[in-house]
Amino acid sequence: MSTEAVTRPDGAAGQHLSTAPGGDSPGREEVGGRWRLRRGGVVNIWQYANQTFDLSGGRAIFQGTNGSGKSRTLELLLPLCLDGDLRQIGSKGFDTVSMKRLMLDERESGGNRLGYAWVELSRTARDGSERFLTCGIGVKATATSNQISDSWRFVTERRVEHDLRLIGSGEVPLSQPQLRDELGAECLHDEQSFRARIAGTVYGITPERYGDLLHLQRTLRNPDVGLRVQEGQLEQILSDALPPLDSTLIQRLATSFEDLESIRENILRLTTADSALSSFLTTYADYALTVLRTRAKASREAARQHDSLHTTIDELAERYRSELDERSENEELVGELEQRDRELDSSLGALRQSPAYTELQNLHDRRALVDNERSAAEGALRTAERHRDQEQRSASTVLGMLERLSSDIDAAEQHRRQADAGLRASGLDGSLAPAIPTMPPTEATVRWEVVRGTADSGSEWLDVARHIPPQPDTEELASRLREVDEHAAAAVEAARERGALTLTLRQQAEETDRQRAEVSDAERQAEAAKVTATEAAARRNQVRQDLYDTAVTWLDRVRRWWHDSALASEAPGTPPPPESPTPEQLTADRFAARGGRERMREWAQPVLHRVRMRITELDRKLAETRSAVSERDTELAELRSGGERVPASPNRATPERDPASGEAFYRLVDFAESLPESERAALEGALEACGLLNAWVTADGTATDAATADVVATPGERLTAGSLADLLVPAAEPDCCVPDARIEALLRSVAVADTAGTAVRTDGHWRTGVLSGAWRKETAEYVGAGARNAARQQRITELEAELAELRAELGEVERQRAASARHAESLERELESYPDDDELFSAHARLSSAVDDADEAQRTANRSRQAHEQAEARWQAMRSELSRAAGRAGLQPETEALQEANRAATDARRALETLREAVGSRCLGTLKQLGTTVLHHDATVADRMAAESLAEQHCANHAEQAAALAELTASVDDEGKRVAEQVAELTREQEQLRERLPEVRERIAAAREEAGKLDEKLTAARARLSERESESRAAASALRRAMELPGLWAAAVAATEGELPESPDGVEEAATALLSTAVTRSSPGSTTAKAVHDKLHPLQQSLSGHFDVTTAEEDEVLTVTVIGEEGPLPVAEAALRISRRLVEQREYLNEQYRSIFADYLIRDLAERLRDQIAVARDLCDRMNRVLEGARSSQGVHVQLDWQPATALSEDLRQAIEVVRKPFAERGEQEDALLRRVFTELIESQRESVSGGYGEILAKALDYRDWYEFTVRVRDSGPDNRQRVRRLRQLSSGETRLVSYVTLFAAAASFYDAIESASQQHDPLRLVLLDEAFERLDDPTVARMLGLLVDLDMDWMITWPSGWGVSPKIPKMHIYDVLRPRSGHGIACTHTVWNGRGLERTEH
């Protein structure tokens, strides 16, 4: 979508259209130009020292990277210097940027700091002179307090750096007293008066309306606007930009609400107390219930224990008697067992004294000796067997070590062969690898022998195979292996040296190969660069020819344009039009076409000026004619409704006349019937000329007070003859307060002859003291009701004729005005249609690029050729050096051969190092272990031989003892065997008896001990019985005392939610009720005194200042008392009374709310909302009229619709309709609806907004949230049919473009509304944008800025980078803001777009 010139539909606002570069239209210059930005500056704020910005023409761009300071520069200039609000500096909203931080944190040195920010406005006055206005703000930051200690604002017509200095001696900014001395006290203002001064001087509006304008500027300046535009949030941005509700009304309403804070605070206090007491009472009720239940349980438990003790005493007595009986029975059994034990001892003694028992004992001892010898022989045989096995394992170990040594020597041999091959491949002698010694034999010899197998003398012997390993000379073999290691070390060093040599040569070879590749690449690049240079030269020539053809085509378009244009016919007698540039000039100068366009514009300005002057003259005539029609319509309507014409008021008469105090002279009199008509008119003329006709006559003939600014007629000296009473008679209305006598006296004091006093004559002459004169009228108009009625009818006839003539004249002037406007628009369109130079500009750009490309291609070709020659020389030198070095080493100079030699040397070195490791670590180590193993094997053989000899000896001893046992066994008879059996039987019986006897004795002791314990228990139980009776009575008494404590039983009743009786009859009923009540709500730990104490501190904090909370410990029970206005009360009763008072206070507050709603919300607020919605509706209509004229070349235009939001509730929709009615036309039901809806809105915001009532009401009653914008885009679809699309149906690029067009229309409409409402039509029309036009290309940005020019808007905009220039912009300043990453200070480069090109200025 591209935008074209905007047609301003709203009358005089169209005069702001800029058509001449760099200034206003001629029509505006006649009445004075509007305010524009001229300059701006920052002195000693942030990182600026003293910076002045040229803003002449009113349009400026600040660009730079993120963090460069462009946004901060805009924030320090505007709108700060036009509103003076230090809290609104930040572009992102209220208090987002701190002036304290800018002044104290971001500076080079410490101490206090003074600074200024200022802007200078200028305008052209009616007389052609230029008028200036400088406004700004000064701040002082104090380091000791670390804050802004003072700020002041100033407005003056003096100019900074011309006739006003802000920096004094020592390069220190002026303080506030110094600036006051410099400017005068009348030029310094506080924030409110500063804003009022700017509102009146620059905009001609009230401070309230100026606040709405500042709101719009801040909304558009917010950098999030660009992001929200990208996200398609245009509708929300438009809603935010609408004027908010009057803050003064909101504050007055908030004050009314805040007047109820005493009630609210009381409710809050009671609510806090109620909440705190409820929370505390929950714990305390649980505690009280727990105390009572505990005491009830204690009472019941004491009674139960008393009854249980009686039962226990009976049981103990029964058990005591049983234990005594059991002990007697066990004592008798012990006596019997001890008697039988003595009898068994006597029988065994007799049997053991017999001879047969003695022989049997000797046989037993011999058998034991034989068993011992057999065991020793079998152990010795097992030991010998183990030693034989150990000998076999030792031999196997020796053989294994020999095999391991053989494997290690074979591996060493394998490494030697690898090293030999590597040495030979690398060009070294293979004999450097040492020879490996041969391996000794590893097979064992076998020898068979016979050994004893068992201890029995008649058993067979065993055959055993003995393995004998070989015995190598380990010392000799170790010496030879060490020699191998020494030779291998020398070979490793030789292989390492050869590896280093081959590596160096290989690297040289690779470098030579790379150089050869570079030669090839350089050759190819040189050829390609040569081809490219040839092609670029051909393209340059072609583009130069294309430029010439484009210039010829453009000249043809200019000639056709002039041939079809009507400009020539409109300029008779003017100089001939400027000649068009030649094709050669167009080819040589890219701005030649643009200069031709500007010369044509300058040539056409006189024509356009005459047409515009004609329109201005017709506008003036239209305004005069309309004013005359309006005045006559008003006069005619008043006369037709019965009104009378009134003589002109006395000169400088200011007060309103009170009908109750008097009446005008002409309404008190009438002509005498005898006076002729001609004399009547002359007499009235004399009365009117001398001032008496409309003089005020009071009831007593005097002025009401000394300060009355009016002409009062007072009776003077009565004339005896020739007075005005002869010509006029009193004719006052019946209800007139001036009596006829007073009128008669006044008439008698005015003469009708030429005397020295006051006199009037019938020929029109008059005299008043030293003054005299004469005036005649055709007819009398005011004296007498008949004259006044006749004059009224005559005037009506005259007015009707005049109106008919004026309306005919008005129609003709309007027709001429419309024809002239169409003609002017036609001429402007023709001038605008002058062929643009875009194609020429593009062709010049292409030629410049082609020339640069051709030159660069030729330079590249030359560089490539030189690079190829140098690479060739380097390769030849490197190749020769490599051949010489490889020949000296006996190697081939090729890369692969050298790489192979290097690899072989490396492999040989690694093989030799591995060989050394195999010999030194493995072979020598294994050989050492082999020697140790052989010695161990020899020791094992010696141990085996000793074990076999010992086993043979033990077997012989066993055979000898076995023979002796056989002889002794044969000599024992049957008598000995019988005696042995009896001894064994009696011994077993005695053992069983002695095992039972301790058990019985233990039972006796246990019975004796248990009986003693039971006796003690009986004694103690009988003693405790009386104590239990006392405890039962004490527990019942404790429960009774707890029930009587103040508030404790009531708290327990609350804990059970009424399950407990209010006043139980006696302790027994209370205990039963307490123990039968289910307790479910108490939480763990909430029933203790500690839990109550934990809750007590929060309760005291919540009630502090209004209630005192005391605690007492009575009978080990914690009681809580609340002391308030009603005296001390238990906590439960206090909670109940506070809850009741809270309900009463809330009802009273609701009554007060209803009163406020009736006095303010329903009347004043609703009326203000009605006015504000009407203003917003008017702004929306104005935006649509502006957007209607902002059509693109493809017919695309935007239309806005502002209606109640679709998400509103039905009640709020109805309330909006009610608000739109005047207060006098609303009924009670409609007022009730408003009251209910407003209450819901306010209460809803009270729950979500943490601020005061001002913030709550501003949010709740913000009409902008009740409405929503709908943006519709009208254009032609792919089928060329008209279509309407919503914003979300557009592409992202179309969305951004449409959004900015709409926002610009909103700003222009706001300024148009201000101009229509103000007395002066020349305000500053300014748009502020931060981080604007993101993702829009330069041509699109240029069209956007061109649209702002069409809307007669000035701007200050920041963006990261870009230009966005176009011929439509007559002048624009572009500042590049630069800031070092580390360091202090700001730098700005200044470029000016003059409508034709960019000019860099020194800054």
TrEMBL record:
Sorted alphabetically, the keyword list is:
Coiled coil
Q: Where is the composition biased (Basic and acidic residues)?
A: 508-525, 623-643
What stretch or stretches form a coiled coil here?
789-830, 976-1024
Q: What is the lineage of its organism?
A: Bacteria, Bacillati, Actinomycetota, Actinomycetes, Actinopolysporales
Q: Where is this region: Disordered?
A: 1-32, 506-525, 623-659, 851-886
User: InterPro entries annotated for this entry?
Assistant: CHP02680, P-loop_NTPase
Q: Kindly give the Pfam families that the UniProt entry links to this protein.
A: SbcC_Walker_B
Q: Does the keyword Coiled coil apply?
A: yes
UniProt-listed SUPFAM superfamilies: P-loop containing nucleoside triphosphate hydrolases
Name of the protein in question: TIGR02680 family protein
Is Cell inner membrane one of the keywords?
A: no
